Structure prediction request, 386 residues.
Amino acid sequence: MVSRPHGGRLIDRTVSPKRRERLLEEARELPRINVNESIAADAANIAHGVYSPLEGFMVQEDYINVLDQMRLSNDLPWTIPIILDVDPEDIIGVNEGDDIALYYRGEPLAIMRVEEIYGWNKKEYAMKVFKTTDPNHPGVAKTFKRRELLIGGSIDLLKDPPEPFENIRLWPKETRVLFEARGWKRIAAFQTRNVPHMGHEYVQKAALTFTDGLFINPLVGWKKPGDYRDEVIVKAYKALIEHYYPKEVVVLSVLRMEMRYAGPREAVHHAIVRKNFGATHFIVGRDHAGVGNYYGPYEAWEIFREFPDLGITPLFVREAFYCKKCGQMVNEKICPHPEEFRIRISGTKLRKMIMSGQKPPEYMMRPEVARVILEHSKPFIGEDEA
Prediction:
C-alpha cells in the first residue's frame, strides 16, 4: 500500500464552502499581511497535507529544533524550516493569540492564529540550512532579503492560490486515491527542476523496473536565473511521457514549491514531501538540490543515513552516461569500458546548446523533448525575473 503520511496523519487545513464564506467576511476585519508567491505556496502545501504533520508556519521551538537537530520538537525528521517572515510594522497591534489574514495578490488567502512572534538570525539560518553564508548562493541571497521577525501558528486556507498548471496539479489526497485505484504498492517519486535528458530517463526507468509506478513531480515556482521556465519543464515532460513511457505506469503532477538549493537537507525535505503524496521510494540524484560547488557530489546520499526512521526508501541510482562501446546509457557499475568511450551528459553543456539554438544529439536528449524546448523563445529564467 502507499506510504503512511509523515507523522501518521494527512493534514487538511482547507475549509468547507459554508465556513469559507464566514471566514472571508472575518478576514476583511482582521489585521492584514501580504505574502509573496513562495509563502502563498507554502500555505497551500500546509493546508493540503503536502507538509504533513505541519498545521501552520513553525513556532520557535520547532524552528530551533529543525535548525539544530533536523527534527521537529516531537523528534520527527524535518530538515527545512517552514517559516513566515514579517516586518515589525506589519504586525503593529498584533499579539500572540490573535488572528490575522494572509493576503496574496490583493485577495484573502488564509486566516492564521498567531501563536508566537519571534526573531531569527539569518546568518545562523543560512549556515545551518545551506552550509554557507556566501551571498552568491541563491538560497542564502534570498534568505538575507527576508524580513526581520517570524510568526508561527496554524492556518485555515480560504482558497488555493492561482495555479497555471491546474490541469496537472494533484494534492496528496488525490494521488493517494489514484495510486490505490491503479493497484500501485511501490511508488518511486522523482523530483526535478530541469527538463529531462537521457540521464534522467535512465534513472527513472531503472527505478520503474522494480516498482509499480513512477510519480514525476516537477517543482514549479521560484527558481534562480538560468533555470528552465516552468512551462518549458512541463511541456518537455509531457513530450517524454507521451513518446517513451507506457501511460499506465507514470503520473505527472506539478508541485508549487520554491527551490531552496539546500543540497543534502533539501534532498530529505523532498523525500518527506513525496512520502506525503503516497510514494514509497524516492530517487535521490547526484548532487541533489545542489548549486555551484557548495556540496559534495554524493553528500545528499550520505545524509539519509541519519534518518533510519524517515518512512520512505531512498533510491541511489548512480550517474548515467552514454558509452560508445555499449551503445547505450549505462553507469559505472554495469559498464566495463574506459573513460575514452564515455560521454557525460552535462546540464551546462545542454544549456549552451539550447541557448545557441542547437539541437542536442539523441544520445543526450530525446528529439521530441529537444523540439518543445527549442520552440520556446525564452526557455530560461532571466536575471531580472528571479
